TrEMBL record:
Domain of life (superkingdom): Bacteria
Pfam families: Clp_N, Polyketide_cyc2
Source taxonomy: Bacteria, Bacillati, Actinomycetota, Actinomycetes, Micrococcales
InterPro entries listed in its UniProt record: Clp_N_dom_sf (IPR036628), Clp_R_N (IPR004176), Polyketide_cyclase/dehydratase (IPR019587), START-like_dom_sf (IPR023393)
Official protein name in the record: ClpA/ClpB-like protein
Organism: Leucobacter komagatae
Annotated ranges, domain Clp R: 18-111
Length: 348
């Protein structure tokens, strides 16, 4: 992934996570603290350094809540009246960055900087108001400690962000790494349950699991029938062609708490691309590291497939972006399940 693409991907991921966090507070403006929360769940070096230093999402949320409680108590406001709720970013709209948070992101992407999570964290630590340095002090972490750790890790790290390449055999595939602030067992319970797939796959509205199958450990080759999502998160009806409404969900691989692979196809429209999602899980400081691979499989055969291959070649940049977008949405969707609930759901 080139510098521009990596910078754009980082900005997208941080913006999404920060604005999701702002939505928990009933805000439409994401500020510096929300940016720090987003960095704390980044799988890039900046996020790893934060978590290794004890700056987890849980602790940042707690520090922000304590600061806010002090401020509100001075105003005579009961904290319980403004307790954070679930993430509602996707059901609402009108979100933006605060001016000072936008300046941090702009400087992290300026000439001579690479726009990575590390660059954003460095700029956040230098932000003139000192709000983040003060917040980190409440967590027991000093600015100099983080800068020294960033310097040490970056000297040893060769950037290896996820790549996306057209693969042979009619497959367009991309992979990336995502951090989830929850224990491996909890993440596995989500990913291994076909009935819960709509919680993290934005295209699925329902997966039917027969009563006789509930509680049984699934095996590779097992299939279930699902339905495409009929409404956007904000309740807007989605226009879905009848042939694309039904989905067959197949389990391709299953290694308990280590790896799972799903394939989603549309039996009523065999020419449509099948989707394949493979997730590897491993423990990480403060949660779980996910190695996610997403692929589109072309299924057409015969003379028409040549036309489709030529068309796909011409559309490769757009298709790469679409594959990256779905991969990003899967990673953020899995993470959001655990970030949107109560504080107990977040890895400490």
């Amino acid at each position: 992934m080139g510098k521009f693409s990596r910078s754009a991907a980082t900005s997208y991921d941080l913006s999404l996570a920060a604005m999701e966090e702002a939505s928990r507070d009933g805000l439409r403006e994401a500020d510096l603290a929300h940016l720090l929360m987003a960095l704390s769940i980044s799988e890039q070096v900046g996020g790893q350094v934060l978590r290794a230093s004890g700056v987890t999402l849980q602790r940042v949320r707690q520090a922000v809540a304590e600061e806010r409680e002090v401020q509100l108590r001075a105003l005579g406001v009961d904290r319980a009246q403004v307790a954070p709720g679930p993430i509602v970013f996707h059901q609402t709209g009108g979100y933006e960055w605060s001016r000072r948070a936008q300046r941090v992101l702009t400087r992290a992407n300026a000439r001579g900087r690479d726009g990575t999570a590390s660059a954003v964290l460095r700029e956040l630590l230098e932000e003139p108001s000192g709000a983040i340095v003060s917040l980190l002090g409440g967590v027991g972490v000093a600015r100099g400690e983080l800068v020294a750790e960033l310097d040490a890790v970056e000297r040893l790290t060769v950037s290896g962000a996820g790549g996306g390449v057209p693969s042979g055999g009619g497959v367009l595939q991309r992979s990336d790494v995502t951090f989830v602030p929850a224990a491996v067992g909890d993440v596995w319970a989500l990913l291994a349950d076909p009935a819960r797939m709509p919680e993290w796959d934005i295209l699925l509205g329902e997966v039917a699991v027969p009563d006789e199958s509930r509680g049984r450990v699934p095996r590779p080759g097992d299939t279930w029938e699902g339905l495409a999502k009929s409404e956007a998160p904000d309740g807007t009806p989605l226009k879905i062609r009848p042939a694309l409404r039904r989905t067959v969900v197949e389990l391709l691989a299953f290694r308990h708490e280590e790896l799972i692979s799903w394939r989603m196809s549309t039996p009523d429209e065999p020419r449509a691309n099948a989707r394949r999602v493979t997730v590897g899980l491993e423990p990480a400081a403060g949660g779980t590291r996910l190695n996610i691979s997403f692929a589109w499989e072309t299924t057409a055969r015969g003379p028409a497939s040549l036309v489709r291959r030529v068309r796909r070649l011409l559309m490769t940049p757009a298709m790469r972006f679409a594959v990256w977008m779905q991969l990003s949405q899967i990673g953020s969707g899995i993470s959001r399940v655990f970030r949107s609930g109560g504080e107990a759901a977040v890895g400490r």
